[in-house]
Write a structure and sequence with these properties.
The complex is a heterodimer of chains A (294) and B (449). Chain A has 294 residues and is mostly helical. Chain A has 14 helices and no strands. Chain A folds into 2 domains: 2-49; 72-290, Orthogonal Bundle (MetI-like fold). Chain A has helices spanning 2-49, 53-56, 71-79, 82-113, 119-127, 134-148, 155-158, 165-175, 180-188, 193-204, 206-222, 225-230, 239-244, 256-290. Chain A starts with a helix and ends with a helix. Chain B is an alpha/beta fold. In chain B, helix 2 runs antiparallel to helix 15 (354-364), helix 9 (220-228) packs across helix 10 (246-260) and helix 17 packs antiparallel against helix 18 (432-448). The chains are: A mainly alpha (294), B alpha/beta (449).
């Protein structure tokens, strides 16, 4: 009897295992389908970047190019000062990422760890800036940039974006989860605020810093509207504006094959950044999201 | 003998006179003496036209600066797409941007004029007149850039609408190419006759009409149809909406019915499936009568690449008469320009120098606002040249019309016209009177507010 029950139990366990596997399989299938749907536009971009303009305009559209036109990449790169746009984008993104990491982590440390009158009110006031849409700020910011003589200068797309309420919020939320005992130990060892921040807090906030870096990089690399307003000179334009300069008023005059090749250049650094920082990206979001609090 | 000699002498004299005149034109001083020729400065200008479209101006600008102000450095910011241009330019001008010259559209002129973003040009035009102004310029376009009696921009090009005709489709069906005498009923008859599911898969492969309505279509694009049905958008004083007039509703219902009732016009989904737009459907031989402006002609010819015979035809006459859409662009000087005198001299040169007007017209397939150069817009020897000239230049000049623009037009077009009438073109609402009623109410609020 007990042997029979044992067999039944094993059978049930085996059945549950199978069920779990089937469940996993279904999840994987669904996720794969969703993944493919998300990848399709990128695949379409690469496919079109390798076609001739005539093939792009063919109806019905083809997915695999008749002949791979790798020269589109060279043509796109040389059609305009793409190297200049690329360098400008690298400078802008690097400055903003480093700047935001510095200012947001310092501000986050202050709001999370230091005690001073009105701290929480100032924090609330600061993060309330998140509610102000950028469109409202465009004209005043433009006037400010003009007074500083920064129109048509990279300063205009870097300096106003060195400070971030969202990043400060992220860093603060992460820092409040770090045990205070570590700080106390540092103080006993003679560390002041800045050494505690630099030697204890900052190394422990790597996942949040990585998340902030990745998000900031993505937004500054793709930033379009503000640079479009404030950067008119070709020498200071960034990649999204360079990409945009290919577009003609009439869609039928636009060299789509070159745009797609150029778009592939533009997307590549983002892809690399995401692949490299993926682990931190997910961990940072999960940690700061779930453990956030006072 | 004496007569013959006299005739030859007269011809020679005429030739020398015209050559002399041309030479004099070449030697003409295109400056107005307002700017020091040694001026060393940057000259910023902006526009929405992109690569392959803006070159027509850039060549003229290069010539002007090289010949007259070699130390001026041009800083072009062109190719800002249409939609973004009308967001960024107001932001820049409201912020006091040092833009010396801006490409302006007739539908936007009044908004910019009223906000004080553009410099009035009348005193410039009085002290240093533009050759040919105003008699040789297209009247509708002069008016379009005049706001409350002040000229804020000088029209450079204008674009009338017409039908691009797939001659092979019509011939195969034994149909004639429509003329300006054709009625909307004739057009519908043609469209019904040629619309076909050629492979029998249940979806239409050839449509009779194309590009008359698509999501995002602005009010200007339908105004000529509305007028031809006896409707309008507002009264003459621009104080009251006329969107719920019988004629207006009839026109908009007619367009919507082409898609949903008769199935002779591609749906928005069918157009989206091309990945580009209606032009591609016509260029691929899927549309018999495609509505577009004249400036699409040369590119269309390249895309068709001899695959089928095509030509151009005027738009039809409606129950209330014949109207043809015309729109156009102009050069304007922002009030924050640091080089307004220089900008005016450049505009004057670009608008009136015959040495390049024809060249720029050909490059852009543009009808320049100087009527003397209308023949230049179509490439020499093009098979469609005669029909092009008739459909666009002749009929456009005769029956050209555009909505009465006003300072709230920009706001109205996006927030009232597009947001309401898109429902008709996407099929979310099939009854034009329902959509028109909502748009009518909102327009009255806007005009009265």
């Amino acid at each position: 009897m007990s042997a029979a029950m044992g067999t039944q139990k094993r059978k049930t366990r085996f059945g549950q295992k199978e069920l779990l596997r089937l469940h996993d399989l279904l999840v994987y299938i669904v996720l794969s389908v969703v993944g493919i749907i998300f990848l399709l536009p990128f695949a379409w971009m690469v496919s079109n970047s390798l076609k001739s303009i005539k093939e792009i305009y063919r109806l019905p559209p083809t997915f695999i190019p008749d002949t791979m036109q790798f020269s589109n990449y060279i043509d796109a790169w040389t059609a305009t000062t793409f190297d200049r746009f690329f360098i400008n984008s690298v400078i802008v993104s690097a400055c903003i990422v480093l700047g935001q990491l510095f200012t947001a982590s310092l501000a986050g440390y202050s709001f999370a760890r230091l005690r001073y009158p009105g701290r929480d009110k100032i924090f609330l006031l600061y993060i309330s800036l998140l509610m102000v849409p950028f469109t409202v700020l465009m004209i005043p910011l433009y006037v400010q940039m003009r007074h500083f003589g920064w129109v048509n200068s990279l300063n205009a797309v870097i300096i106003p974006f060195l400070f971030t309420p969202w990043g400060t919020f992220l860093m603060r939320q992460f820092m409040v989860t770090i045990p205070r005992e570590l700080e106390d130990a540092a103080r006993i060892d003679g560390c002041g605020f800045f050494r505690t921040y630099a030697l204890i807090i900052l190394p422990l906030t790597k996942p949040a810093l990585a998340t902030l870096a990745l998000f900031t990089f993505l937004s500054s690399w793709n930033s379009f509207q503000w640079p479009l307003i404030v950067l008119g000179t070709p020498a200071v334009k960034t990649l999204p504006l360079g990409l945009y300069s290919f577009q003609a008023q009439s869609s039928m005059r636009t060299p789509w094959h070159l745009i797609m090749a150029a778009a592939t250049f533009v997307v590549l650094p983002i892809l690399v950044a995401f692949v490299v920082g993926q682990k931190y990206y997910v961990r940072g979001i999960v940690t700061s999201g779930i453990k956030g609090g006072g | 003998m004496f007569r013959k000699l006299a005739l030859v002498a007269a011809i020679i004299a005429l030739l020398s006179l015209s050559l002399g005149a041309a030479a004099a034109q070449d030697d003409m001083d295109w400056t107005c003496g307002m700017v020091d020729s040694d001026l060393a400065a940057t000259f910023n200008f902006t526009g929405w036209e992109g690569p392959g479209e803006v070159d027509k101006f850039l060549l003229a600008f290069d010539e002007f600066f090289n010949a007259n102000y070699p130390n001026v450095q041009q800083v072009p910011n062109t190719g800002v797409a249409w939609g973004d241009y009308w967001t960024t330019l107001p932001a820049q001008l409201a912020g006091g941007a040092e833009i010396d010259m801006a490409w302006m559209h007739d539908s936007r002129n009044d908004t910019f004029g009223e906000n004080g973003w553009l410099l009035p040009l009348d005193s410039y035009m009085e002290s240093c007149p533009i050759p040919g102004w105003p008699d040789h310029f297209v009247g509708t376009q002069i008016d379009a850039f005049n706001y409350q009696g002040t000229q804020y921009a000088i029209p450079y090009d204008w674009a009338p609408g017409g039908f691009y005709v797939n001659v092979d489709i019509l011939e195969a069906a034994g149909l004639e190419i429509p003329t300006e005498e054709s009625t909307w009923d004739d057009i519908l008859e043609i469209a019904l006759a040629v619309t076909e599911d050629t492979d029998g898969d249940g979806t239409t492969d050839i449509w009779g009409l194309g590009n008359l309505a698509s999501p995002g279509s602005g009010g200007g694009g339908h105004y000529w149809i509305v007028k031809s049905f006896g409707g309008d958008y507002w009264n003459e004083e621009i104080t009251e909406s006329r969107l719920n007039d019988e004629g207006t509703i009839a026109a908009l219902q007619f367009i919507a019915d082409l898609i949903w009732e008769h199935g002779v016009h591609p749906t928005a989904d069918a157009v989206a499936a091309t990945g580009f737009g209606s032009e591609l459907l016509f260029a691929n031989g899927n549309v018999a009568l495609h509505y577009a402006l004249n400036d699409a002609a040369s590119r269309m010819d390249e895309l068709i690449a001899g695959e089928f015979n095509w030509t151009l035809a005027p738009t039809p006459t409606g129950p209330a008469g014949r109207y043809q859409f015309v729109g156009g662009s102009a050069f304007a000087i922002p009030s924050s320009s640091t080089q307004p005198d220089l900008a005016y001299e450049l505009i004057r040169y670009a608008l009136a120098n015959p040495a390049h007007l024809c060249r720029t017209a050909t490059m852009g397939a543009a009808l320049v606002s100087q009527a003397d150069f209308h023949n230049c817009a179509v490439p020499e020897g093009a098979a469609y040249a005669d029909d092009y000239n008739h459909a666009f230049s002749v009929m456009g000049a005769r029956d050209g019309i555009h909505p009465t623009y006003h300072s709230k037009y920009l706001e109205w077009e996006t927030s009232v016209y597009v947001s309401n009438f898109d429902l008709l073109w996407t099929g979310e609402e099939r009854d034009a009177s329902v959509v028109a009623a909502a748009a009518h109410e909102q327009t009255n609020m806007l005009l009265g507010g």
